[in-house]
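Holo model, 4'-deoxy-4'-aminopyridoxal-5'-phosphate. Inputs:
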Amino acid sequence: MSRFWSKITHALTPYVPGEQPQHAQLVKLNTNECPYPPSPRVMDTIQAISDDSLRRYPDPSSVALREAIAATRGLGIENVFVGNGSDEVLAHAFQGLLAHEEPLLFPDITYSFYPVWCQLYGLTSRTIPLAEDFSLALDEYRAGRGAVIIPNPNAPTGMALPLTSIRQLLDQNPDAVVVIDEAYVDYGAESAAALVPEYENLLVVQTLSKSRALAGLRVGFALGNPALIQGLTRVKDSFNSYPLDAVAQAAARAAVEDVDYFDECRQQVMATRTSLSEVLLELGFDVLPSQANFVFARHPEHDAAKLFAGLRQQGVIVRHWNKPRIDQYLRISIGTEAQTQRLLEVLTQLL
Ligand code: PMP
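Output:
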């Protein structure tokens, strides 16, 4: 069949997502979902959706949702773009904002979707190795008239840069678009959203998939200068002019407005992260300093692939990559207290 494909599609190496087994008994700690349900206001909103709002096309510009997001950041609606998960927002950014005469820079250990989008949209890129301790070699990110994208915190290490470092990155790249992918920013890291009014070349991308427990709803957003937001909107309108369905727009708005519930969930996740890290250290693991809703850890005496397989056999799913430098690490999402207990029970048996 391959002769029917174009050469480009045939050569693509697609992104491989973490597995999504539909088995309720599993302790699923492999894709950094929130272990708690979404805000009760989200569930109420979905139940109250009118038949009219399903019969009609949704608002193509997601105005009410964008206003709600803007209000939480002290920004205007013209600073906000929304899409089906931050993956779609990022894909639009790769396609419309990050292709320049000089390469796009990103770390060599990072979100593995970035090289896929480069391939898909024909972008030239240059990866910059993380330092020995997995920190970002900030001085090396000088893109000239190109572009930069980094996740903060980085994935899958969970390590975050402070706002002063993001400022340095922006100051040393005045002519490049700088994208900060903040999928995991709500667990202790500082958001670059505060810098949006100051830097016209900054795009901050966030998601409702993690800290708002809405991975299944598919809502993400970008914050930036109106010129960048207009660029994304042009890509959207050339691709799918109704990015978010009516249910997603209404439910996402309810989630964004329930700030108390959001705070409660993320505080709980951070508390569990601290206690999990302490026990992992006691068990002899090296644990990277995480500011995300997962930890990245290795045991100097136990092979990570074997630990991964042993956990899996007992119904505990974490993430492991057969990639240079990180093949001895496990990435473990922060679960509920009970899931964390189960994880530690099985790990203790395996060691
Ligand atoms: N950025 C990073 C760094 C991620 O790990 C993820 C989750 N896989 C995303 C973006 C995309 O998340 P979503 O599309 O669910 O918003």
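The CA atoms of residues 46 and 251 lie 6 Å apart. The mean pLDDT is 95.
Archived with the compound record.
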